[in-house]
Design a protein that fits this description.
Elements: H1 7-14, H2 29-43, H3 48-54, H4 64-68, H5 73-79, H6 96-106, E1 132-133, H7 143-150, H8 153-170, H9 180-195, H10 214-217, H11 222-231, H12 255-267, E2 269-270, E3 275-283, E4 292-293, E5 301-310, E6 316-321, H13 334-342, E7 348-352, E8 358-362, H14 370-373, H15 376-384, H16 396-406
Antiparallel strand pairs: 1-2, 3-5, 4-5, 5-6, 7-8
Pfam families: DDE_Tnp_1_7
InterPro entries: PGBD
Protein name: PiggyBac transposable element-derived protein 3-like
């Protein structure tokens, strides 16, 4: 007659430890699970069916007779006579980091795991689309042909119309209306003065051959040049809104030229994949509410211009002259607001989804090699300042006009 096992026999067979201490490099989780399961079976024999169904596979070998009827504790234990204790799994960690990852993974679901992301975007991806002109000119085309791509006939008509209108409003004596050809000559003289610098304007018309510049003196008399410079205008002063008007614009006197040239800059070149947005300064030391002080800039006092330029060539795509706080706060801040406004044309990209469809998603603006591409505006300033046409003037907006001619 077989002898039934009692609780002490089962405990000795499974070698139940006296305490629950664990070694730092060993795991007794499996053995404790078996002992606890058996103890619960001994204490609650009526629920043995549910416990065995939820136990590990090596315990789910109970005959149907035990699961279908409420057997006694001794009869149930006899079915477990042949069970062997599960050997504990020993995990040896080679480093404290691996031990920490192992401890954390025990508490998580097996379907989740830590994956260290090591891939990085290829910087060459941002150089795939280079700057290209929209309209190609003949290689033998004169520089004036390239200049007129930006200073179009519409720009010349604006200058001619507003200059003659201002002269008429002011009743200037002995005024001869200007035309497109004369304004072209006037701008050409300014450009020559930019790379042939003399201490005073009158020296370009001097009788001294050491100062005289025939390309200037033979095109226009000095009195006519000064008269055009004094009368030059870009907008109708009589139509300017008052400061109390909601349409008041601090840049009203030069706003038409700003709009026309902004459109020309965008239309004459394709956007490259590498652009930079930064501040540029227009030198001005006179009195103006637009004047800013930037102690870290080479030009510390003047007008601040936000520029969006190609990183490699310095080509100016878009710009905005800073006129001060608008009164409407922005959540992102001034810098983020300017970046979003100037890069509005390139804020989305087409991304291929898993199902093969293409969807427009936001383009990450800051995933770039910053140190490599941040110098686009600095490059623009360098090229612009090589032969700058700017001259001293008491009229605040003339400095901006010279800046746009240089740009």
């Amino acid at each position: 007659m077989p002898r039934y096992l009692n609780e002490n026999d089962i405990g000795q067979m499974l070698d139940i430890p006296d305490d629950g201490s664990e070694d730092g490099f060993e795991s007794d989780e499996a053995e404790e699970f078996n002992v606890n399961t058996i103890q619960r079976l001994l204490e609650a024999p009526d629920d043995s069916s549910d416990l065995l169904q939820n136990s590990p596979t090596h315990l789910n070998t109970t005959p149907n007779s035990c699961s279908e009827s409420g057997t006694s504790t001794i009869a149930l234990c006899s079915q477990l006579d042949n069970l062997q204790p599960v050997k504990p799994l020993i995990v040896q960690s080679s480093s404290p980091l691996e031990q920490e990852l192992t401890d954390e993974s025990e508490c998580e679901d097996e379907s989740w795991g830590k994956v260290f992301w090591t891939s990085r975007p290829d910087p060459d991806e941002f150089d795939k689309v280079t700057i290209k002109p929209r309209y190609l000119l003949n290689r033998r085309a004169r520089p004036v042909a390239h200049f007129k791509k930006f200073f179009s006939d519409e720009v010349f008509d604006l200058i001619v119309t507003q200059t003659n209108l201002y002269a008429e409003q002011q009743n200037i004596k002995n005024w001869q209306p200007v035309d497109t050809q004369e304004i072209s000559a006037f701008l050409g003289i300014l450009i020559i003065m930019g790379y042939h610098i003399l201490p005073h304007i009158d020296l370009y018309w001097s009788s001294d051959p050491g100062f005289r510049v025939n390309e200037i003196a033979e095109v226009m008399p000095v009195k006519r040049f000064k008269k055009i410079l004094e009368t030059l205008h870009l907008n109708d002063n009589n139509q300017q809104p008052s400061r109390e008007d909601v349409n008041f614009d601090k840049l009203y006197k030069i706003r038409p030229l700003i709009s026309l040239l902004s459109q020309s800059f965008e239309n004459n070149a394709f956007n490259s994949s590498s652009q930079s947005i930064d501040e540029s300064m227009i030198l001005f030391k006179g009195r103006s509410s637009l004047k800013q002080y930037m102690p870290l800039k080479p030009i510390k006092r003047g007008y601040k211009v936000w520029c969006c330029c190609d990183s490699s060539t310095g080509y100016l795509y878009n710009y905005e002259i800073y006129t001060g706080k608008t009164g409407q706060g922005t959540e992102e801040g001034l810098g983020a607001n300017v970046v979003k406004k100037l890069s509005m044309e390139v804020t989305t990209v087409q991304r291929t989804q898993k199902n093969g469809t293409r969807e427009a998603v936001s383009c990450p603006m800051v995933v770039k090699e910053y140190t490599k591409r941040m110098g686009g505006v600095d490059r623009f300033d360098q090229v612009k300042g090589t032969y700058a046409v700017g001259r001293r003037s008491k009229r605040w907006w003339l400095r901006i006009f010279y800046f746009l001619v240089d740009a």
